[in-house]
Amino acid sequence: MDGTTRYPPRDRELHRRLVYGDETALGEAYDAYSALVRTVARRVTGSTAVAGEVTQRVFIDLWTCPYAFEPGQGSLRAWLSIRGHHGAVARMREAEAERAACGTEGEDGAPESFEEARVALHTALTELPLPEREALHLACFAGRTYRQVAVELGIAETAATARLRNALSSLADRLAGPSAGPGSPADEARDEC
What we know:
Helix content is 74%, strand content 0%. It has 193 residues and is mainly α.
């Protein structure tokens, strides 16, 4: 499949308008995708307030650097979802570093080990190959079925299930340690979706 027919022309048009500084294009992108970005960030951080900050940062980045999104590489929806996830992971790392410096437990009273497992899981997500990461984001964070993942990515259903299976297997392998068992980050990765 070539890049010109795989993704909807709306992404290309929005991208062109963003590059030329059209503020209404940013508004359209925000209206269409801010709820998705906020949901992804909230699922990663567990905080509505932090999710709002991450969402704002993602759209500021889209406005100030529209060339970072390349329409031929994927959909704007998937790109924004991934940016939201990366931003949320970064905020969690910052919060963890602050807690470590202060010697306190998580903001919701959860023990550090849970926070560490959560950060390890989301860090492992960022290390997946892009096709697997896109499929997993759509399925786990955007709530899509494997059939919907296939349609949104423009791939066969068998390819979508293979990407999801490979992504989950890779996550489990990356998170498995010598003491991997119930309650381990690897076990959490399998149950994340």
